[in-house]
Structure formats: structure tokens, C-alpha cells
Amino acid sequence: MPKSLVIVESPAKANTINKILGKDYIVRSSMGHVVDLPSSKMGIDIENGFKPQYITISKKKKTVSALKKDAQNKDKIFLATDPDREGEAISWHLYNLLGKKKNIHRIAFHEITKTAIQEAVKHPGKLDIHKVDAQQARRMLDRLVGYSISPLLWRKVGRGLSAGRVQSVTVRMIVERENEIRAFISEEYWDIEAELKKAEGKADSFIAKLDRVEEKKIKIDKKEKAEGLVAELEKEEFIVKDVQKKEKRKYAQPPFTTSKLQQEAFYKLRFSASKTMRVAQQLYEGLDIGDGENVGLITYMRTDAVRLSKDSMDAAKKYITGKYGREYVPTVPNKYKAKKSAQEAHEAIRPSLPLMEPDSIKDHLTPEQLKLYTLIWNRFISSQMTSAVFSVVSVEIKAGRCIFKAQGSQKIFAGCSIVYEENGEDEGKKKEEGKILPPLSVDERLILIKLDPSQHFTKPPARFSDASLVKTLEEYGIGRPSTYAPIIYTIVARNYIKRKEGYFYPSELGMVVNDLLMKNFADILDYKFTAKMEEELDEVEEGKKKRIEVLKEFYAPFEKDLASAKVNMRKVKGETVATSEVCEKCGKPMVIKWGRMGRFLSCSDFPNCRFAKSIPTGVTCPEPGCDGRLVEKRSKRGRHFYGCSNYPKCGHMTRKLPTQN
């Protein structure tokens, strides 16, 4: 009979650890949180020091009963939940539910390997109450915002809407970017490139770009200016004015943090943030890699640290030396500095078994698991390699009063780039690095092959993708590594934001709700205020600040804003727009109203007639013989698509709205 009980969050993690520990241990899963604030009410006693009113989650009562039964007559009970705030809070609740027994121990590990698990069991620790307090403070802040503002939105816009301390700030960010794009006025500009070649020899031609005129940067904003300069330049001699040669190093990048993993997985694999974290969780919790052996393949995937253990760096050094040679290993191992708020007790995301190459386990992984594991493995190995070295040549060429520039770059030592190249945003730089200029000397005369004036237009800011949104949230200090993917998932599911071809667009509903919140809760949606709240939660975790202090400081001004909003917030729900549409049931006029899914058509005789439908797009259904129009719809998972208004008679649907002449 097992002598010890180990409790983790997930069945997959339990399965892996059970195989490691053997028959003397029984490993059970709590299936996540077992205790939470009640869903039916605020659940916070504000008047009595913001006391949380925790209850056992109704659907977890059987789980808790089973855990209590498993805990009976055990010599030791180990709480082995994840090593972050949420994991600590789960362990704290389990500790209380199991009776605060002396034989209950907290164990933490950052990789699910035999060595890590056995060491954790040998050297158990204690619950970190500061970390628990930080989780509770965050949970209560989110509850205060959500359960106060959401009902207000129900009354003012439509039932089912929600607001969130971090999600609403993220929506604001996307809405403001959309407003910038819409307000952007494109400006015309012209570039002039010269194709040149050496007067002697058989060297290939190369391209030089006009840089300045009479030693001043010039903006060519009209075709006439460009044509005038071309006509002038055609009469000039092109003479090499200056040649600069230097070596440039591209240093190895740090191993992955959560946010950087999400960014690179989007650029290289086109994974959304949610998909990246879902697959990473599978790799962390353990997979069968043959002979029935379950192994956690990566370290804990929610981290903002870039630290690596000495053992992992030694393993990387051994691998790199054997695979590529000593010249690819730096004299002193590469170490990286984390940002100020990073938890250095954690490690970066790396392979838990560094010498396990992706190819050696590819037959045991799904394509998605293999892609992400390969990305993590390559990044880790490259982080411990020497710099890539390039020979860079920069040339200035004089033509009358104009100066042209050309640059060439050649890789002379691959270094870390032999394993890992930086993300897809650098494609332009890579093309530049691949250019090789012929040998040129000062005062050398060149032959002009042709001049090429090209018209361009300035572009508006790019819409956010999963990668750029995560990067911006991190730069602003909004949210933490564990929150980025859930935030994005929530605002898409709530229909505030639409994802189209990998980029985010605010819905009409998102823009309306954002406008209402900005006018009534400016502090809550302020970037600096939200970042400051995250810093204060970090201070709670570090024991520098009390949980109740953070809650009191937040709630006093928030309560005033809430009271004002109840009176002054615009009531969009009551606004209607007349249309020429006629109700299909009663024949009365249809009007446009707002609801939790955005605008829709409703019978003007509501509530006597409850007929309603989506607003047609104006695009006719492409199915032969169908006279319906396409309407925007959403799947149960929040994905947008277009379906025929004649459904179910016509079942046409498409992800993209077709263009019509």
C-alpha cells in the first residue's frame, strides 16, 4: 500500500510523476483550483478588510472528497502544484482542506525529470504565504473590477458582457491602434536606386541607394522631383568616395521566457499564444517517448527568467563541442541578465534533458509538439554558442551633388546562427546580410547601368498580432507571463476583438465598450496605472507590501468612479436605428440594436414580437439559385465566419467575405 500521497494539478502531470516515484507513492490530480470565490456574488467582504469568502467549487466536491480519502493513513502528503502564484494558492487551499496536518509538505520543481522529482521529495519546503497573498490580491482585484463593471455594461449595453482589469486595457490598446490606422494619411515618397558595376573585370553589378543631396537628407515627395534628379544624375560620373570595412557580431540570444516563446512561435510556426501555451504544457507535463517511459521534455513554461542551471549549461557545452567543434563554444559560458521584475529562482524555458535531440524523439511527438520542442531546443543550444561573425562593407558613391550608399555583408563564421536564426521580422536584415559587394577602392570610377526611381507610400502602424501584442503588453508592464494567452483568448471569445489572418481587429462592440469605459473608468484603463498594480502585486509576493494595502488603495478611487458611472454612463442599450427591413414574423419595421454580440436587427415591436437576426453584409450568397445575403456569425469557440441568411435552407459558409463587383 502506498505510504505517501502526492497532489498535482493535472492528470498528465500525475501520470508522469507516478511512473517516476513508483509503488510507494500515489499521485493524484486536483484538476486545477478546488477553491475559489463564489460565481453567484462578489464574494469579498469589503467592509471587513476585504476578506475573501472562499468556497469549494461545486464541480470539485467529489475531487476534494477523493483527495481527503486518499490522504487518510498516509505517512507524508506532498503538495506538488506548479511553482508560481496560482500553483502556490492551489497548494494553500489543499493544505487547509486536508486539515493543516504536520505531515503535509510543499515541494516545487521546474522540470519533471527523475532527478528533479526525487530531489524535491528528499528536500521538501514550506508554503510561501507571500506568494499566496499575491495571488489572492490579484484574484480579488480582478473580481472587484469584473463584478462591479460587468453588471453595469449589462444595463447599459447588453447582457453577457464583461470587463476586466487587464483584458479591458488590452482591448483599449487594440482599439487605439485601429484608430491610428484609420486616421493615418499616407504620404507619397520616391527612392532612387542606381545599378552600378566596376569598369574593369567581370564582377556582378550591385545596387546603391540615393542617401543625400548636397550633404543633406532629402525627401523626394513628387514624381517630378525624382525625374529631375534622374535626368541630372544621368549626366554625372559615379565615383567611389569612401569604403569602410568592419567586422560585426551577432550575439547569441537568451533562452526563452514565456513572452519570447509566444512571440517566436507566432513568427516561426504561426502558433497563437494560446496554442503555444497548450502545447508547451504538454511538453512540460510529460509524454511517452518510448518503452512506456513518460518524461517532462521542457522546464516550467511560465517564467520571465533567463537563468540556466549549471548542469544544463555544461550539457550544452558538451553537445556543442561534439557536434560543431570547440570554436563554437565561448571561453566563458553565456549568461543573461533578466529584467528587474523577473523571478530569478526560476529558470528559462529549456529542454529538461538537454542532450535529447528533437530527431531522436520525433516519432513519439505530434507535429505540433515536435515543432515547439525543436524551437525551444534550438534556442537553448544556440544561447550557449559563440557569436556569428560578419564582414560588413559600407560604400559611399559620389555622383555630382548626390551621395549614394551601398552595403554588403558576408557571414564569415556561423556561430550561434548555425542552430537558430532570429524571428521572421528580421527577413529584411537577412537579405541585407546576404549581399556581397565587389572589391571597391576610393576614387574608383563606376559604370552606371541604369537609374531606377520607385514610388512608395508611407504605411500606417501595423495591426497587432499575437507576437506584437504580447511584446507590447510586456513592454508596458501589463499582465504577467501566465496571463498573456488567457487575456487574448478572453477578448476574442467576448467578441471585443476579431482575429483575421493572424492579426487583431476591434469589433464594433469592442470599440463601443472601450469608449464607455474610457469615459467612465479612465484610471482602470490607464497603462501606467495597470503596470503599477502589477508592480504592487510583485511587492506583495516579495513581502514588501500587505495585500490589504493594495486592495484599499485601489478600491477607494474605484468606488467613486463606479458611483459616477452608474448615473452618467451612456445607455447604448436603449438606442435604436431605423431601417427599411420588415419583420418576417409580424410585418413591422426592424431596427438596429446593441447586444452582447454587437449590433443586430430586432423587431420594433419587441417584446411583443421577439424576432431578431444578424445584420446582412450586403454581399449576396454565391450559391447558385440562392437569393440570400451573407451575415457575420460566430462559432461556439468564438471564431468568426460568414453564413447565408437563408440558413438552414442554404448552408453556405466561408471564413472570408468574398468581394463582389
Fold and architecture overview:
The protein is α+β, with helices and mostly antiparallel strands and 661 residues long. Helix content is 36%, strand content 22%. Helix 6 crosses helix 15 (484-493) and helix 8 (258-269) packs antiparallel against helix 14. The longest helix has 28 residues, at 129-156. Residues 425-429 have low confidence and may be disordered.
Sheet with most strands: 6 strands, antiparallel, barrel
Lateral strand order in the biggest sheet = 9-10-15-14-11-16
* Percentage of β-strand residues: 15-25%
Contiguous runs where pLDDT drops below 50 for at least 5 residues: 425-429
Judged by helices, strands and strand pairing, the structural class is alpha+beta
Helix count from the secondary structure assignment? 18
Instruction: Work out the number of β strands.
Output: 26
Q: Over all CA atoms, what is the radius of gyration?
A: 31 Å
Amino-to-carboxy terminus distance: 75 Å
> Which range best describes the helical content: under 10%, 10-25%, 25-40%, 40-55%, 55-70% or over 70%?
25-40%
Average pLDDT confidence is 91
Shape: globular
